[in-house]
Amino acid sequence: MTTALTRRHLLTTALAAGVALPLGAGRAAAAPARLTLPAPTGPHPVGTVSMHLGDRGRPGREMMASFWYPARDVRRHPVAPWLAAAPLRELLAANGLDPDIASPLTAGHEGAAVLTGGPRPVVVFSHGSNGHRSETTIVVQELASHGYVVVTVDHPDDSFSEFPDGRVTVPSEDDNGTPWDHAHDVRNLLDRIADLAGGRNPDLQRRPLPANLAGALDLHRIGMFGWSKGATATALVMNTDRRVRAGLSFDGPMLSQPRPAAIDRPFMLMTAEFTPCAEESGVAELWPLLHGWRRQVHAEGADHGSFCDQAWLLPQLAARAAAPLDPAQAVRIQQAYPLAFFDRHLRGQRQRLLDGPHPDFPEMHFVSSVTCPSA
């Protein structure tokens, strides 16, 4: 399953960086000087900081992570790029495309102090195969603008990433790991978040951290979401780590060895291509194993990338690149449904959006049972 998805994810991740044409055709397109991302809708400005983390359980394994949070006094802090220049060039060059496309800028202000007000719910994100921790920045900065601390991580051997010493890594051509590898990385990330909440700086270089960050982490209100392989990893983390109270899948295949098992906490599936009856999908097998609050919401007409940044970035590169969903509507879906899910399950706020169809989102269909046609 990992091999089958690798090429698909490499292409969709490249598209997220602004590639809208077939491989080899990028230089024929007139790319804009800089792509843009939509602004988050929450009341708070957003801060961000990157950290270089180790894994005590697997010596020598290191990874980059980013913390996103509601901030104060952001005026003197520059905004962070969507993806650093060096890994972005590698991402584009790996697909035979123009490596000089400029990264969009995010809403995150680097190193800004965290908004005070006590511990806040924490959400962690796991990316797809051959991806990177920035691929759902629209969702990440939306949650942060509404008061969440969101932590994203680059999975070693499966991401385009850059370390503080200038080393740039790309996905391994031989073995980029399984959803279980992603799950182990996230459990390590949760340990490092706990270190930070306990007053210890988990950054391997002990670089200064934003003021108030440690006090903003509520370890009793942790959620997780992931895209594709990272969505499968979300289920696996919930199978093995009760620190995660609620999980959200963005079009996850839900296939691994061993497979995801029963989950007794809230879990929501947002599907596009990996529907219960789709080939190479384990969603139908997972559905009856969801013993807590559960929802399955299908986006009619969406494709695998409709729940990540490519839905917005792709159309900026080529007008003839037909998006399966209107880009603005795809962004509204990304901003509304994850926020409603975590507000309900980490903040205890009832959300009508999760109770059934909503007139603002006619393409979102609630699936309550699985009936697949006979083979």
UniProtKB/TrEMBL annotation:
InterPro entries: AB_hydrolase_fold, TAT_signal
UniProt keywords, alphabetically: Hydrolase, Lipid degradation, Lipid metabolism, Signal
UniProt keyword Lipid metabolism present: yes
Signal peptide from the UniProt entry: 1-30
GO annotation terms (biological process): lipid catabolic process
GO terms for MF: 1-alkyl-2-acetylglycerophosphocholine esterase activity
SUPFAM superfamilies: alpha/beta-Hydrolases (SSF53474)
The keyword Lipid metabolism is assigned to this record: yes
Name listed for the protein in its UniProt record: Acetylhydrolase
